[in-house]
Amino acid sequence: MFKCGTYIFLVVWSLRNVSLAEESLRFGYVCLLDEPNPNHCDSFCLNTLLPLLSQIAQGQEQENSLKTETKESLDLMKSQQTKIEDQLRSHMESQLKVQAKLEADLLELQTKLDGKLQTVQTAMENRLQAMQTNLEGQLQAIMAKMNESIVDVADRDLNKVPSDFKRIGSRYFRVIEKAQDWTTAGKTCQTMKGYLASIQNEDELTAISANLKNFACYWLGINDRYNEGHYVSVASNRKAEILKWKEGEPNDKSHEENCVLLIDGKMADYHCNASCSFICQADNKI
Ligand SMILES: [Ca+2]
Ligand SMILES: [Ca+2]
C-alpha cells in the first residue's frame, strides 16, 4: 500500500515537473527537478513560490482581519442587542408599573363611585319612604274626613240636624256671636230649631272652647232658676252633666245669679238679664 501511494505521488510530481518544464520552455527558462527534494529548489523555485506564499499569507491576513472585523461586528451587534433588550425590559417594567397604577386608580375610583351610588340610592330610598309615609298619612286623613263626612251626613239625616249647625266632637252646635240676655238667646236658638247648649263632658267642653273668643262670655242652657244650687239643662230639663266652675263660682251674687255662662273654658253663674254671646245645640238629649 505504501509503495503504491509513493508511486502515485511520484507520477503526480513527474506530471507537474513536465508541466513546469513545458511552461519553462514556453517562457525561455528551464527548471527540471529530477528529485523531489526541497533542498534542490533553486532561486527560480523560490521566486515562483514566494509570491504564492505571499498571497497565501496576505489571504490569511485578510481572512484574519475579516474574522476580527466580523467578531467586532458581532460583538457590537450583541452589545446593541443586549442594550435593546435592557431598554425593552425597562420599558416593559415601566409599562407594568403604569398599568398597575391605572388599575389601582380605577379600582379606587370604582370604590368611590360605588360608595356615592350607595349613598344616593339610600337617600332616594329614604326620601321615597318619607314621601310614601306622608302620602299614606294624607290618604288616611282624607279617608277619615270622608268617613266623618259620610257619618255626618247620615247623622244629620237621622237626627234632622239643621245644616248651619257644626259638628263639634260627637254633637252639633252653633256659636252665635251676638250679645243677648239668657232668655232671648234661648228663643233665638229655638228659631234655629235648636236649644241653648249644655255640655256633655270635659272633652266636649274643651272642643267647644276652641271655637270661642278669649275673654268673651257665652250663655249656656244650664241654670238654677227654679231650685237654687241645682243646675239643670234647659234642653233636656235634666241635671247638668258637667260643671267646671271658674275660681270663686258659683257665688249666686245678690241671690240673682241663676244662669250659667262660659268664659275662657270655665263656668260662672251670672245675672240672666246680662248680655252675652251664646251657644246653641241641635239636640235635646243633654
Ligand atoms: Ca243661683
Ligand atoms: Ca256668680
Automatic annotation (TrEMBL):
Coiled coil: none
Compartment annotation: Secreted
GO-annotated molecular function: carbohydrate binding; growth factor activity
Superkingdom classification of source: Eukaryota
Predominant subcellular localization, coarse grouping: secreted
Name listed for the protein in its UniProt record: Accessory gland protein Acp29AB
This protein's GO CC annotations: extracellular space
Keyword field: Lectin, Secreted, Signal
Keyword ATP-binding applies: no
Residue span(s) of domain C-type lectin: 168-281
Signal peptide (UniProt feature, chain positions): 1-21
